[in-house]
Amino acid sequence: xxxxxxxxxxxxxxxxxxxxxxEKAGFTVAEASDGREALERARALAPRxxxxxxxxxxxxxxxVCRTLRAESDVPIVFLSSADDEIDRVLGLEMxxxxxITKPFSTRELVARVKAVLRxxxxxxxxxxxxRVLEHGALRLDLDRCEAAWGxxxxxxxxxxxxxxxxxxxxxxxxxxxxxxxxGAYDEFTVVSDRTIDSHIRRVRAKFADVGGEVVETVHGMxxxxxxxx
Length: 229
Fold this sequence. Notes:
Layout: E1 5-8, H1 12-24, E2 29-32, H2 35-45, E3 49-53, H3 61-69, E4 76-80, H4 85-93, E5 98-101, H5 106-121, E6 132-135, E7 138-141, E8 146-149, E9 152-154, H6 158-169, H7 177-184, H8 193-208, E10 215-218, E11 222-225
Parallel strand pairs: 1-2, 1-3, 3-4, 4-5
Antiparallel strand pairs: 6-7, 7-8, 8-9, 10-11
């Protein structure tokens, strides 16, 4: 059986609406109504994706995300009533893959969920080949959905892996934020420059933790993969 999508919200009405929309789209859905239950169910069910409310009792959505990111790269789509760019950036910097504000269109929510899952499917193993990108100590195994710096593994989200894969496509080339957006997101998704910058900061921090440096800023132009080390 396909792993479910875990929907987490303390509002029963929101849970009902999201469950109905996702089940209508053909997904299996599990629910949690607070942060602690969300962690328990995520660990027990190993969901394929989590739709996670930001403001909840027990543990906030960002606290749940922070805890899960230490254990898993499960895709996370945040839901929040706050349409504040600071909150949006914070959620993405915690490791979220997308962010939707309430009230929201169920069609948009389903589309964004499908977009994140498509990014995962593009990383699925090819039947007859192994796809590995290497650049100095940096290694990206697209079939295994794994990144590494030397012998140290680095856990990346779907969006973060998409960004690094795009940069590795042409080492030395400078990519604009728009080009990185198209490489990491599906075409209908619109994200701000600060969103891309937030993902880049997370990628840098994760590799820095194991002594790596993978992304170089070219001021006024964009980003490129750092020189091989």
